[in-house]
Amino acid sequence: MQGGAAVGATGGTSGAPGVGGNSGATSSGGAVSTGGGGGDGIGGASGSGGTSAASGGSAPDAGSAGSSSLDGGKSDAPTGPVVYVNSCSHVHWTATASASDQGDVAAHAIDGYPTTRWTTGRPQAPSQDYLQIDLGAAVTVSKVVLDNTGGSADDYPRGYSVFLSSDGTTFPNNVVNSIFFNPPGPVVSIPFAPQKAGAVKIVTGGQADVWWSVAEVRFDCQLASPPPAGAIDPYDPVTWKASANFTSPNYPSSNAFDSDPTTRWSSGQNQSGGERFRLDLGAAASVSQMTLDSGGADFPAAYMLEVSADGQAYEQVAAGAGASFTRIQFAQKNARYLRVTQTGMDPNHWWSIAEITIQP
């Protein structure tokens, strides 16, 4: 029990002391352990059926039969890391657009998935369409990247203008304009002098019979001020950690969130059920969606997703069949740890994750 030893509550007595052990002592954490009829134990007090409080007097969890572990008698609750919002991370952005084609909505341009896209659904015309990204706070921006490597490479803007705004409503700052005379390839990079902005609007400036599409928008971006030392953004993969019960030496767990779809974590063995991958966000955050991009055929035959605030007690929130791109949605939970268990059988494939993402 973290937070101190326990004291017997009214209505129950501690078990008789074992060799070298004592009955339950007063806890500075203020929690209690209820004793049933206990027998002698070796090296410690016994009390079958007791409950003990975890983490310095927080809500109790079931105690083991007759013993509790001590942590030096400390009663202070553990302090978590300082949490901040990284407005340079796409998970905090919102996107709007002048037009969208059916399900290819503006939010797809900032969802972190190269296989989804936003598209206008109509031929390009000068100043007709725009894509606006609200960053959530003022940051310094020096480049816009429009990435269509997931497909639709020919749907690049034939011309563009980039506008910046402090309030997301008026866009007085036109930082760059250009027209393409030759195809730029699947990635359009638009650099300009560093500017402070809370929102960015890209407007088409050319004419073409093809639609304008964007799979992912990125920025060269810096926060207005650095975060406190040791602070983390639980939605930012830079501070995530992961572990797995099976891992191929050449495919470590960190590959699953390195923003590089060409790398991957792999179990290193064919799927037999029971393979687990645990993601640690570093601090608790509201989560309602996880995606697993296998990058190919090594997707889970079936999965179970559990979440936890402390890494000890887990709650199952979803289960189902896997796919090359597995999107898992569930009722919003406050969690620091997300544990995926591969529950199916596939004798011909490892389980791999090229990229993993979460959404609030």
- Assign the CATH class of the largest domain: Mainly Beta
Structural class determined from secondary elements = mainly beta
Q: What characterizes the major β-sheet?
A: 6 strands, antiparallel
Q: Using the 3D structure, state the CATH architecture of the largest domain.
A: Sandwich
Helix count equals 0
Q: How is the CATH topology of the largest domain named?
A: Jelly Rolls
Write down the secondary-structure element order: EEEEEEEEEEEEEEEEEEEE
- Report how far apart the termini are: 32 Å
Total DSSP E strands: 20
Fraction of residues in H or I helices: under 10%
- Poorly predicted ranges: 1-78
Name of the CATH superfamily of the largest domain: Galactose-binding domain-like
**Tally of discrete structural domains:** 3
**Measured on Cα atoms, how large is the radius of gyration?**
27 Å
Overall pLDDT: 82
The fraction of residues in strands falls at 35-45%
**Overall 3D shape:** globular
Textual characterization of the structure:
With 360 residues, this protein is mostly beta strands. It has three domains: 1-79, no CATH class; 90-223, Galactose-binding domain-like (Jelly Rolls, Sandwich), CATH 2.60.120.260; 237-359, Jelly Rolls. Helices cover 0% and strands 42% of the residues. The protein has no helices and 20 strands. The protein has strands at 7-8, 32-33, 51-53, 60-62, 94-97, 118-119, 130-147, 159-165, 173-179, 187-204, 213-214, 216-223, 241-244, 265-271, 275-293, 302-308, 315-321, 325-342, 346-353, 355-359. The strands form six sheets. Strands 5, 7, 8, 9, 10 and 12 form a six-stranded antiparallel β-sheet that branches. Strands 13, 15, 16, 17, 18 and 20 form a six-stranded antiparallel β-sheet that branches. Strand 8 (159-165) and strand 9 (173-179) form a beta hairpin. The relative contact order is 0.12. Mean pLDDT is 82; it is low at 1-78.
